[in-house]
User: What shape does this take?
Amino acid sequence: MRVRNKPWADDLITENPQAIVLNPEHYRGQWQSRFKSVQPLHVEIGTGKGQFLIGMAVAHPEFNFVGIELQKSVLAAALKQSLPAELPNLQWVLADGQGVNDFFEPREVTQLYLNFSDPWPKTRHEKRRLTYKSFLKSYAEVLGDGGQLQFKTDNRHLFEYSIMSMTSFGLNLTELSLDLHADVAASQGELENIETEYEQKFAAKGQPIYRLVAQFPKK
Assistant: This one.
């Protein structure tokens, strides 16, 4: 997908070094220094315009959050949206999420989020899917035993593929939803769901949203 350039993006990023990291490998093992309080670290790979992670940071001040996004203009939009809230538990990273184990030390992260990742539907592109086994291996390194991975998508094929990939890798599925919004409504507030921009768009068209939560095994 082509992303329109935002001429103000560079200036906004330069003016807010307290909220955005351009050299994430420098903070490997030291991410807590970027936050006001030392708290469990949650990371979203492919954060888009930031609606999900901003919502999570507001709803859960007891956790620290890092959002990783490769597209500068997209991440600048997330940064712009988050600045008025002055959230001390939220940081943005301009980088390719494929380098997650270069950015975080083993067991430095408690939970990972993958929201509406590119499905890469062609078989020859399987290795690019963020739930392919090589990616799961890198997640296992930064999460450690018992770490959790939350995955949401509108793509049924990718969801089914991810279930098979994760279970083959040895992950335990602790939550599985084939219609997340229906399940949230039926739970009467017991099931939390912070929506992403894509999620709202697809749900408005009546398309079901799929979600799973998987846990890496405790050895």
The helical segments are 9-15, 51-59, 72-82, 100-103, 133-143, 156-169, 180-186, 197-204. Residues 107 and 144 are 5 Å apart (CA to CA). The chain has eight helices and eight strands. The mean pLDDT is 95.
